[in-house]
Amino acid sequence: MTRKEIDTPHGPARVELHCAEEGGAALLLGHGAGGGIGAADLVAVARAARDAGVHVALVEQPYRVAGRKAPAPAKQLDAAWLAVAEELAGTWFDGLPMVFGGRSSGARVACRTAAQGQADAVLCLAFPVHPPGKPDKTRQPELDAVEVPTLVVQGERDPFGQPEPGPHREVVLVPGDHSLKAGLDALSRATGEWLGRVLRPLVS
Hints:
Elements: E1 2-6, E2 13-18, E3 25-30, H1 40-51, E4 54-60, H2 62-65, H3 74-89, E5 98-103, H4 105-113, E6 121-125, H5 140-144, E7 150-155, E8 169-174, H6 184-203
Parallel strand pairs: 3-4, 3-5, 5-6, 6-7, 7-8
Antiparallel strand pairs: 1-2, 2-4
GO molecular function: hydrolase activity
Organism: Prauserella oleivorans
Protein name: Alpha/beta family hydrolase
């Protein structure tokens, strides 16, 4: 495991790199609004990805590196994420297919930046379709805008709603709520299988 700070337009981001023995692709994972890269679902997915032959970069946004708890505005999150992705694509992950991913707020960032960052696929953990109790304030369009293969892993009792499947999008429900802690085994299986399937044509 290697840690590295990467300059972004909004301050340094911190990246924790976990390399697979024979990695043929890379997965960038972002954290939720109030949490960090040590979240149980991110750790489980990082392990499953490495087992599937995928390098992993856990990305800590600049506001967290600076010690702030309140998340930065969406445009700042997206700009910082794209700066990190560009740096990694030109260094550690040069020439490799890249998957953008994250949990909750990090999943939204991955969706919003997928096209500009030329991601080959998107992995969403606990995508917050709407604020709890406010289904009219939907973020479904962020998912719908993604045109590359997408997997959404959602807790069956997630108060942030359930995303709809789409032409490029698979939705897997696992036990538990927004934290996904009750469904880590199912999450790992679904993620490892999906990564292997969608990346196989790109790395062969």
